[in-house]
Write a structure and sequence with these properties.
Chain lengths: 364, 364
């Protein structure tokens, strides 16, 4: 079992990563002072529930916890105000009070949704994350929680840190291959912004990760969470440094907005976005090697690096201009300088971005 | 002009109370660093808008601010997730970004709703309160913001402190008499829990307050906010002391739940609740004088002190048991010891409460 601490003063919390941690889940709940008198509510989705909900409920009940659970649909559309209302109904009916905890069992969708329920139910109750996707290593560190609005993703939310994060590597075995690869995109991102050695390790161990070898996944999640934790510790509310976590996301989010439903997973979109950022880095003077190694890391994880040719460049740019990272009219971009190091460029010429998007399409 | 500071570490903020402050509203916005580049959004209701929205918009625009505004229906039902979604739509359409501010112009309903929009839009933007009711002196201190759920009031919310509060006493002149009196209920409450001298002042100046004399209202709001600010400073997240602010609210909320729509205003319900609490105090050994002075203070402000006879006692008790102040099954009550001093009693016998509710009905 590996343990990692996210340092945030009195809101600090640990992340536990290991195989079979769900078996002893109760001891973690007891250790972290989750109430056994007040009911807790597990929120999960319809794909995760059949695999792990019964086991988790049984283990917690056996440990003396009162368990209520709620299952939402799988997928991004579940991050909605309608589900917030529904889950609050369940919480009230289940008798959850101020000392209750909300437990997220699932990927980033369940984590973000359950986290916002925890942040806003009675103005905030305890929150525990049990991530079951690789991508959720990202969403489980940092306390960003949110639901979507028809006009914008993650626009209604809060900062709400969990009490602790419990990563049982066994749960990753049921994860579809495409989701595994998409999750590795954020793992690689954490290397690209912070840790060259880890990028080298990812290239060397891509095969082991893609085939879900627990030892490789455990180390990857430990390192990925570790980078994110360091960044977040230094800048909890995203005033400056935390923005580097958005590497690849400016283009990535725009691609997601323009793509048809489920055409591109988030991790796939930011994989392409990170290639775009590397190209930008080269324009700003970085060595060609930056682009080569970035592409190698992503491709060895089976991730896409090109924009499908039928995507409209103007539509991508328009989507980008509505992105919330454009504060006070300036265009902010995270640009790599070398592998393991990025900079925030506040004034990237839109023309350059347009040209790079065209390149990313033509090389398809 | 009176000024008061709510001390909350780095979230501290001032409350300005005076006549005609809206005329110079821009200077306060500039002083507090509200962005002139990013648009701000004023949220108000349909009754307040005709009186003050144009003036406020004009003064802010003249001061160089970009102003968007949104008008919701008047009344408690506006504190809804549906309005949150609608206001986020307006905010996105109006181009609000992370540096934008949300401005509440109105009573507690607008303050709570706009505050929750500010707390959750992009995970939190700046918030300014311009209260236009007396009751809002209460809601504008402490940072509690929320919307309602069909099953429970204020159940979905956050703690989100404003940048500052601007109380223009002129805006109170248009407030209906019944709302004036209802607002004075919380003013008196602040005396009852903390400051005997201020209770005496309230009794002596009730007439001046009820007739909306600016000097009396200015002092009352200054003192009322002051008590609340002291309590909140010592306990921002309601772990202990802050609970004393709920004097009269356990019974009061139950009465609101049982009453027909608009039959009892919040201030009226808690006025009756405070009589109930005083009776409880006497049962616990306080002097009869406690009840006499409490009743005198509330009656001289024109507030009700009896439960209408047609209210069902069992329904009131049932509503009380669902109140969120009942944590982990124990019944918590704020009980006065003497004028200006209260205690939290964790285990008040339900039978006593039942008897007191009956008394409050029979003396009608
Ligand atoms: N809060 C943050 O800081 C942050 C950071 C990154 C991403 N996110 C959010 O995370 C979300 C994406 O996360 P995700 O990729 O985990 O999505 P997800 O939760 O939708 O999971 C992906 C898919 O895998 C299924 N699934 C999950 N665990 C499984 C398992 N163990 N076995 C089988 N199937 C399983 C899910 O039902 C879903 O169909 C997005 O909404 C994104 O906005 C948030
Ligand atoms: N956040 C907190 O700490 C806190 C504390 C106490 C109460 N509250 C909330 O405050 C709300 C009650 O506040 P309220 O009594 O101010 O209600 P309100 O906002 O509904 O205002 C009362 C009525 O007066 C009208 N009005 C407001 N200002 C006016 C003016 N200047 N001239 C003419 N009409 C005017 C409104 O349109 C409304 O009809 C409740 O929702 C309660 O939950 C919150
Ligand atoms: Zn991401
Ligand atoms: Zn009140």
């Amino acid at each position: 079992m590996r343990q990692l601490n996210v340092e945030l003063g009195e809101r600090s919390y640990p992340i536990y990563i290991g195989e079979g941690l769900l078996d002893e889940v109760s001891s973690y709940f007891v250790k972290h002072g989750i109430s056994q008198k007040s009911p807790l509510m597990i929120i999960t989705d319809e794909k995760v529930a059949p695999f792990y909900l019964e086991h988790l409920t049984e283990r917690l009940s056996a440990g003396g916890f009162k368990v209520v659970s709620a299952i939402v649909a799988s997928g991004e559309q579940s991050k909605s105000l309608a589900n917030l209302e529904l889950l609050v109904t369940k919480a009230l009916e289940g008798g959850l009070d101020r000392k209750s905890a909300i437990v997220a069992l699932g990927g980033g969708v369940v984590g973000d949704l359950a986290g916002f329920v925890a942040a806003s139910y009675m103005r905030g109750v305890k929150f525990v994350q049990i991530p079951t996707t690789i991508l959720a290593h990202d969403s489980s560190v940092g306390g960003k929680v949110a639901v979507n609005h028809p006009l914008a993703k993650n626009i209604i939310g809060a900062f709400h840190q969990p009490e602790f994060v419990l990563y049982d590597l066994k749960t990753l075995q049921s994860l579809p291959d495409r989701e595994v690869k998409a999750g590795l995109s954020e793992v690689v991102k954490h290397g690209l912004i912070w840790d060259k050695e880890f990028v080298d390790w990812c290239i060397a161990n891509a095969g082991a990760m893609v085939s879900k070898q627990p030892e490789a996944l455990g180390y990857a999640l430990y390192k990925g969470c570790g980078v994110k934790a360091q960044v977040v510790s230094e800048d909890e509310k995203e005033s400056s440094l935390r923005a580097i976590l958005n590497l690849g996301h400016t283009i990535g989010h725009a691609l997601e907005a323009v793509a048809g439903y489920n055409e591109l997973l988030h991790g796939e979109a930011i994989s392409i976005g990170m290639i775009g950022s590397a190209k930008l880095g080269v324009r700003y003077g970085a060595s060609e090697d930056l682009l080569r190694v970035t592409a190698l890391a992503l491709e060895s994880c089976g991730l896409p690096t090109r924009i499908p040719a039928h995507y409209d460049t103007d539509a991508i740019l328009a989507a980008m201009m509505h992105d919330k990272k454009f504060s006070e009219g300036t265009v902010v971009f995270v640009v790599p300088v070398e592998i393991g190091k990025v900079e925030i460029k506040p004034d990237v010429p839109i023309q350059w971005v347009r040209e790079i998007i065209e390149e990313l399409k033509q090389e398809d």
